[in-house]
From TrEMBL:
Organism lineage: Bacteria, Bacillati, Actinomycetota, Actinomycetes, Kitasatosporales
Domain of life: Bacteria
Family under the similarity heading: Belongs to the binding-protein-dependent transport system permease family.
Transmembrane segments: 35-62, 91-116, 128-148, 168-187, 233-254, 280-302
CDD domains the record matches: TM_PBP2 (cd06261)
PANTHER family from the UniProt entry: ABC TRANSPORTER PERMEASE PROTEIN, INNER MEMBRANE ABC TRANSPORTER PERMEASE PROTEIN YCJO
Cell compartments where the protein resides: Cell membrane
Bias (Basic and acidic residues): 13-23
Protein name: ABC transporter
GO CC, one annotated term: plasma membrane
UniProt-listed SUPFAM superfamilies: MetI-like (SSF161098)
Amino acid sequence: MTTQITSAPVAVEPRKGARRRPEASSAARVGRPGFLWALPATVFFALFAIAPLIMVAVLSFMSWNGLGSPEFVGLDNWSRLADDPVMLKSVWLTLLLTALGVVIQTPLSILLGVWAAGHQRNRAVLSVVYFIPLLLSATAVSVLWRALLDPNFGIPARATWLFGDGNLFGEQATAIGVLAFVSTWQFTPFHTLIYQGAARAIPQVLYQAAEIDGAGRYRQFFHITLPQLRNSVVTSMILMIVGGLTTFETVLILTQGGPGTDTTISAYYMYQKAFKGFDFGAGAAIALALVIAATIVSLIVVRVSGYDKMRSDMEGVS
């Protein structure tokens, strides 16, 4: 009878000074990327964002018509804008259009985003068609709707029973309505995309547990989906607010600030001051004021919503 003796494998210690395997050494160095990885983006941001912003801030205290050398005037540009009735009216119109964008686009984007995250029949085809405006520039969209809403040759001229005389740009109320509608048509798909991705990231086990407890579709939406989309709602609202405060092309092409100054928002008034009135100091002051206002409003939204205290693994948890 022969007995086989098998010995257990013995771990062999590497010789002193022996070269370690590349896999082990690279695994030991796993961590955050170094500063050099962020250097190109930092340089790009400094050259094309920080430097122009500093130049605009300096120019806001200067008087310059585009020729010759700027002349320092202190707070003269700011004091003139504070007493300018058109500027004060433009601030109110900017806030109004921004508020309309948030109120209209937020619920619409949430509903469409949650729907697009599902598995309905023909969902993919309809989503592609709906996202087409997102591929177009603001200028192209404005030119398109300017032609469609032309009072002489557009849709209003063919449907006088609905639009009356057809001149939607002749009164302040209808002109503001057109601006809000066009902005909603173009930018709602972008925010829908945000909510679609966030809705797909919600764990399905939450809905399964809710079904076991007898919760219907509507209770699942208000008690599971909406709380889980909290961070996405704050992010989307900040983008809407910043976009609303700085919108320009839509007003330039659709209404040109008219009728009169009834749709002259702050960004368009900046354009008028700087590039039509050649008062680049006042235009720079308006631009800097818009940057400051957008930053302050964004910080307020972040602090009030508690977004700055939440993490990605705490989505919807208060």
